[in-house]
Amino acid sequence: MGLFARICRYPLRELAIIAALAILLPMVDVMLRSLGFKRMLRLAMAARTVADSQQSASAAELAAARRLAALARAVGEKHLWRSACLPQTLLVVAWLRRRGLDARLRIGVLKPLDQAPAHAWAEVDGIGLDPDADRHRAFAENKQAPSSAAKKLGSH
Asked: Per residue of the chain (156 residues), what is the pLDDT tens digit?
């Protein structure tokens, strides 16, 4: 199936999201490399959220969040400027927080812990948006995640 035929399968709304992701992912990647992980995490988490209301995300919101994460992963893997899971996740977290969801960045390693590849994914209400999240054991959530873990993610 050709590129045009594959693109035509997507609804117009998703095409707009894909276009935005294709533009934003390289920008996030460059910003991550130039500003560093801590600053980028602060920027992503600074986006407004309605977490203070203590409401959980609805099933429709979770489905939309999962779809956004899947699109970000697909664009990150297929784009001419490939991006690792960390820039993808930072963008997804910021995007979801701007939409009012209490999205969080999670970083972990493959289970069992003797395997080293690190991975980053977004969570909403403790639910991993990445289908591979269950294969990883998350580090304890920390306001200032260790920069060594972030450096390992750049190669993922």
From this structure: 676 777 778 888 999 999 999 999 999 999 999 999 999 999 999 877 665 455 789 999 999 999 999 999 999 988 888 888 999 999 999 999 999 899 999 998 877 665 557 888 899 988 889 887 777 778 777 554 444 545 555 545
Alpha helices, H only, the chain: 3-8, 12-35, 37-46, 59-78, 85-98, 147-153
pTM (2 d.p.): 0.77
